[in-house]
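hey so u asked for the seq, here:
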Amino acid sequence: MRKFTFSLAFLFCAFSSAMAAQNVSLFDRASSPLYNRIKNFRFKWPLKAILLWNKKAGRFICENPLTKRESHNPVNIQKLVRTKKGDCANLSSAQLMGIPLYHARLIGATLESSDLTNANLAMSDLRNASFIKATSLGGTLFNGANLSGAALNSASFKSPKMIKTNLDNSDMSESILSGADFSQALLNKAKLVSSVIEGARFNGAAMDNADLTGADAAKNPQTGEASDFSAAQMQNARFDGANLSGANFSGSDLSQASFEDANLGEANFSDANLEGANLSAQNLSWTHFERADLRGAKITKPLTQATMTGAVYDSKTVLPFNDAKAQELGMIKK
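ran it, structure tokens below
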């Protein structure tokens, strides 16, 4: 016990010396001295490195507190608490590979151009944070995090985990999110304009008024998996010009959604609610509409080899064929 106490004291002195020598702050520019803030953190033992703001370099660095050398080893910190006063944390261009920041409070933080490969941000409060041009080669966890209002424009993440993540009003335009898992996530009014979401999973997600104009949600060429929007709530969502070839929308609520000029070849809309939807897509070949609700929907292009058995339509539905053909295809008029 005495040896452990001595080691902890030694580390404390090393921290204090490092901060005094380099004029650094812990996690944000407004941090108070370490000895006033150490009670806010619980450290795993041994501590390999700590994230420090280097004022001279103008960026955060991972530094070994004993050798004072920059390190890329994970920072073993269980909980990160940002100070209430001063500027938001600035983590621009930071090397955060493998760093556990779960349950972190980083409201409005800047993580632009940072590397988040294998970083753990699960359950973190990242409201209005900026991840513009951030990158990850894989393994990034955002499960259960609050990213509402966050900016992820032009970010590049390989298969990020965003299960039950709050992404309401976020902007992921022109981002690469292939293989992302958005299962049961909140994406209401989220923007994924021109984003690459090949093979991504949105099953059970809430996506009312989401904008996926020009998004690429086709099958992932590497895994062969198509994007999954099954059982998602997507009223008034926009998919204009999107590539949705082979995408799964089964059981989804797509009422009043727009798919103008989209590629819906081999897409699955079985049991989906497409009431009032604009399905003036450029390609509807081999598309599945079994038992779908097409009342008030608009379909203007040929349904080449499409399956319509049990699909419901009414007098307001616009179809590229007459009632006789609709009944021949097994559709039901109400």
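Residues 1-53, 71-87 have pLDDT under 50 and may be disordered. The first strand starts at residue 50 and ends at 54.
lmk if thats what u needed
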